[in-house]
Design a protein that fits this description.
By secondary structure, the protein is mainly alpha-helical. Helix content is 69%, strand content 0%. It starts with a helix and ends with a helix.
């Protein structure tokens, strides 16, 4: 393989994320799911007649709640993902010196 071809083929391979990075991503995803479920349960409460009801408004509120959950988990506003990551990181194997030097 020529040097140009090898350089091009190496561009397509992304470095594999570490176990800690994968855990952080999964913790954020779990936090988003949890917040979505919490907001959905809160929306089910009924405080009387709904002046602005209908399927379109329900869909809008669901999309709004999903977006809020995604933003909240990405920014770490609630901090649930950080706590989950810290608790589960105890079960990860210790990082080798070579892996720590890459970061």
């Amino acid at each position: 393989m020529t040097s140009v071809a090898s350089a091009i083929s190496s561009l397509g391979t992304a470095p594999k994320p570490s176990d800690r990075e994968q855990l952080a991503g999964v913790a954020k995803q779990f936090e988003a799911i949890f917040v979505r479920q919490m907001l959905a349960a809160a929306r089910k409460t009924d405080f009387g007649s709904d002046m602005f009801g209908g399927q379109a408004m329900d869909t809008f509120r669901q999309m709004q709640d999903e977006h809020f959950a995604d933003v909240a988990s990405e920014t770490g506003v609630l901090g649930l993902a950080t706590v989950i990551e810290a608790q589960l990181a105890r079960f990860l194997p210790p990082e080798s010196a070579a892996d720590a030097a890459k970061e």
